[in-house]
Amino acid sequence: MTSLKSSAPPLLFHLYRGVTALLAPFAFRKVAGKLAAHGVTPVRQRERLGYASQPRPTPMSSDDSSAPLLWFHGASVGESLAALSLIDKLAPRLPRAEFLLTSGTASSAEMMAKRMPARCRHQFAPLDSSTAVQRFLRHWQPDAALFVESELWPVTLDAAKHAGVRLALVNARLSDRSVERWKSKPATAAFVMQKFDILLSQNPQMGQTLIELGADAARVHPSGNLKAGSAPLPVDKQALDDLRSALGTRPAWIASSTHQGEEETVIAAHKALLAEFPALCLLLAPRHPERAEEITTLIRKAGLSMARRSEGQPLTADTQIYLADTLGEVGTWYALSPIVFLGGSLAPIGGHNPFEVAQAGAAVITGPGYSNFAETFPPLIAAGGAVEVTDASTLAKAVQNWLQDPTALTKARAAAHDVVTTQAAALEGVVDLLIDHLALAPAAADN
């Protein structure tokens, strides 16, 4: 396959590369401190400098197309899970391929340790500085690299391209702010976009944006959201049984992945619902559990009783709000109740993953700010699998409607599941596109 010729590196790129080289020691000190605070060992912290903590799978020759090493990068948990869904689809087609998954956060590393398939290993991504990236590339020698969503690291992309690595941007999604920032630097944006052999956007609108930023139109393909194909979240059966036993016949609803400024709305909605459903329990799972003290204060100011999971406080008959301030248990919460409000949608965040909710068999409530899933929520809402709300009053009304009408709730749950299943099926063509544009060995050549 003939590669698109990239433009000459603009002056801004040279300046960026020089500055990142100078700042790398300070950047490493900062990221290493964050990793250390989460218990990451010094050896693994040095992965951010490009020092590998695992051997490269053999054979070492990148010319051996029968055993390619495919490098996937996702910044944090959500992107890493999307990468895993793609690895799950590629692995059967490429039975000799090996997979390397990089990310930048300790929480993503913890999640990957639990969910990585065979032939896959995790490393923390190198900083976007020449020395770290070159060290990383010399060790791993990937045949292709797939960057998930919005990770556009100029030094990394340029070095990888010069090393002969075929590049893909998958599940591409740039925020409005990021788009405007790139548009203000058109030469650098085009230089970066032209590094990719293929760009898969979440929707046609984002595909057009990538072209406007300088990507070759022939290489841009709207492909849907890869998160639609993710495996269902794990469920802790014992924890689920314990909570169900504690609730008994009490109704419950979930508010998941909430952000600062949203808990007040959720708590107000729950307080209003208690007037009609006095036994109702809210399970509140903030996006960032470290905000638990702040949220506890809000609950107490509202005059509601609560129990806090991280402190082992039991859910009792008097518990009005159960604060699930832990990580890695969201799948269990979604299995607990068929009514889920997804946060990050009342605050200007962009929304969170509705696929996980629908896969668990629940219906979705969202605020209007779901720009990160602009290709998913409109059909989900149109099908009746999701409801959009704007404030505490409309949120309470949405929950009330489904609590009072089990038949409507059953239909909503089925509609949500159908939409997600349809979008997941549409992703099958993504594998063919990647194998073609990245010149990966087809299954026939591996047998």
UniProtKB/TrEMBL annotation:
It catalyses: lipid IVA (E. coli) + CMP-3-deoxy-beta-D-manno-octulosonate = alpha-Kdo-(2->6)-lipid IVA (E. coli) + CMP + H(+). Pathway: Bacterial outer membrane biogenesis; LPS core biosynthesis. The record marks E149, K227 as: Transition state stabilizer. GO terms for molecular function: Kdo transferase activity. InterPro entries: Glycos_transf_N (IPR007507), Glycos_transf_N_sf (IPR038107), Kdotransferase (IPR039901). Keywords: Cell membrane, Glycosyltransferase, Lipopolysaccharide biosynthesis, Membrane, Transferase. Its EC number is 2.4.99.12. SUPFAM superfamilies: UDP-Glycosyltransferase/glycogen phosphorylase (SSF53756). Residues 45-228 form the 3-deoxy-D-manno-octulosonic-acid transferase N-terminal domain. It is an enzyme of class 2 (transferase). It holds the Pfam family Glycos_transf_N. Coiled coil: none annotated. Its main location: membrane. The active site is at E79 (proton acceptor). GO terms for biological process: lipid A biosynthetic process; lipopolysaccharide core region biosynthetic process. One of its GO terms (cellular component) is plasma membrane. This is 3-deoxy-D-manno-octulosonic acid transferase.
